[in-house]
């Protein structure tokens, strides 16, 4: 599949790793940080491809030229950071959200996969968009991997049936990890399925240790919904639930 076949009018595809045979059973959509491009996500894409050979892994390109620094090179962005501050940041994210959601839904439809089999993974600004997308839109994706990201606003509700994995470097000077810890605590209090990993001696980067930790969470984390369903099935069959 070439970028000319992209279902998006934004010609968003920049890197695609597809199953060698058969149709894709999972879809991972990857979103880079501001000022970078989709190639920034290649290490994560390759790691996901190795662990999930039946998945389609697509790293997508932001829709706008990077404008924070005039003449800032060939980098891209999901929304403008020029003049951004605490007062207008959330509005800018919200303004960019309809196009972002449409992009996710277009690729999901292209691979004919239900939302539960779609995962969003982003770094920095790409993580901001992924996190806020599942807050804003129901049944968009089943998992989010957020590397070095942040919420535009502290969550006020749990994303329904979504597993959120927050991964951060303790030495991140761009988006401090404490904000993500606070967000994780809020999400847990709201009943969300969330994990938060903060690794020492890592800054604002898509570090291999963070990628490995993300893969471990994908392999091992059992959503509370699945546990509840298993418990209910046991009760329906007259079985005594474990740990009681």
Essential attributes:
244 residues; alpha/beta; Rossmann fold; 7-stranded mixed β-sheet; two-stranded antiparallel ribbon; globular; disordered N terminus
Account of the 3D structure:
The structure is a single chain. With 244 residues, this protein is an alpha/beta fold. It has a single domain, classed as Rossmann fold (3-Layer(aba) Sandwich). Helix content is 34%, strand content 19%. It is built from six helices and nine strands. The strands form two sheets. Strands 1-3-2-6-7-8-9 form a seven-stranded mixed beta sheet, with helices on both faces. The chain has a two-stranded antiparallel ribbon with strand order 4-5. Helix 3 links the parallel strand 6 (118-123) and strand 7 (143-147). Helix 1 (42-51) runs parallel beside helix 5 and helix 2 (89-110) crosses helix 3. It is globular and about 65 Å long. Mean pLDDT is 89; it is low at 1-10.
């Amino acid at each position: 599949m070439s970028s000319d076949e992209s279902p998006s009018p934004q010609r968003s595809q920049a890197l695609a790793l597809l199953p060698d045979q058969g149709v894709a059973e999972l879809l991972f959509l990857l979103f880079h940080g501001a000022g970078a491009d989709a190639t920034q996500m290649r290490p994560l894409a390759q790691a996901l491809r190795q662990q999930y050979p039946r998945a389609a892994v697509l790293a997508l390109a932001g829709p706008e030229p990077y404008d924070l620094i005039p003449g800032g090179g060939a980098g891209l962005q999901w929304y403008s950071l020029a003049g951004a501050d605490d007062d207008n940041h959330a509005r800018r994210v919200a303004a960019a959200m309809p196009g972002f959601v449409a992009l996710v839904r277009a690729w999901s439809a292209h691979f004919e996969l239900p939302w539960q089999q779609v995962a969003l993974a982003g770094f920095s600004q790409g993580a901001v968009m992924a996190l806020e997308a599942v807050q804003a839109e129901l049944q968009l994706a089943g998992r989010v991997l957020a590397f070095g990201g942040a919420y535009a606003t502290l969550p006020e509700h749990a994303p329904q049936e979504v597993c959120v994995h927050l991964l951060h470097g303790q030495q991140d000077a761009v988006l401090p990890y404490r904000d993500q810890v606070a967000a994780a605590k809020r999400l847990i209090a709201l009943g969300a399925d969330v994990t938060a990993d903060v690794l020492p001696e890592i800054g604002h980067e898509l570090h291999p240790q963070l990628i490995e930790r993300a893969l471990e969470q994908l392999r091992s984390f059992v959503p509370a919904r699945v546990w509840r369903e298993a418990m209910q099935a046991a009760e329906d069959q007259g079985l005594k639930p474990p740990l009681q």
